[in-house]
Sequence to fold (317 residues):
Amino acid sequence: MARRGGGLLTALAVVLSVAVLAIGAGLLYLVVTGGAPGAPLAQQQAAGLEHKSFSEYDWDELAQVAQMIAEAPSDEEGRAVADEWGVHVGDARPLALTDGNQAQLVVVGIRHDERADGSGVAGLTLMASPIARRPVNPSDTNEGGWEASELRAWLASDGRELLPERLADNLVEVTKLTNNVGVTSDAAAVTETSDALWAFSLTEVCGPVDLFATEYGDEVRARTYYQDYTLYDTLLSQEGTQYEYFADAGVSDQADGSGVLAQSYGSSPCAWWYRSAYPYTFNVGDAYFFYQVMDSGYPSTIGYASQSAGVVVGLCL
Fold:
């Protein structure tokens, strides 16, 4: 006669066996992924990523590190992730361009830029030293600002093709704020564009701008026809916020004591473009200029839009 309870014991043994298998599978998952089943994808993928310095990562690996920084719950924790994976503001590495020229890539910000798709911040913002010498526009006009410029269109096409393929494939589009009118004192002229490559704005490099207050004074005076010139400073100062790299170097709109702005293209020093249009004109209809860094590294001057100057680009991973 069969013993009572045998079926129950068999069922219990099956349940225990399944539980053991499930626990084993879970442990294996943790080993493989480096985190809990609900861990962010970048954290899971990082299980096979070796810790290196900024200059040693390949482009796919650096994009993984940037994604982990972006997925951190706060800026403080994101910076801790960057430190853990050997990436710091000011780190630099060579950048070989597809046309045979050599540039330099520098970390200028961590969790500074907002992704254009609204999904949060980009992990890293990098600056590439001049990848070309080009005008902003084919004629001397800043009408339409950065948004309508030929330089912006070039960066989205031929300029992007100068980057290594895997770097270009990992770029993250971010939101940029710029005066996209040209000659104006109206703060409403500052609008958003979505860009994977961009020229820096004056205030992203120099911090809050007071160029017009310095030149014309900060009061409405008869010698300036009772015009409030500080409105132009306010306009320029709304084109983003200063990156940590430039702030740490003490860059302002009238000083670069650390010499971080001096750039060369090939072996020759060159001025380089900001995306900021010069917003004032003495004569109605004159809209000729964009801001530049001088070839000496002095942080603020203006150049005719049709002149060739260095194309220093920002990009995010």
User: Anything to note?
Assistant: Confidence is low (pLDDT under 50) at residues 1-38. The longest strand covers residues 102-110.
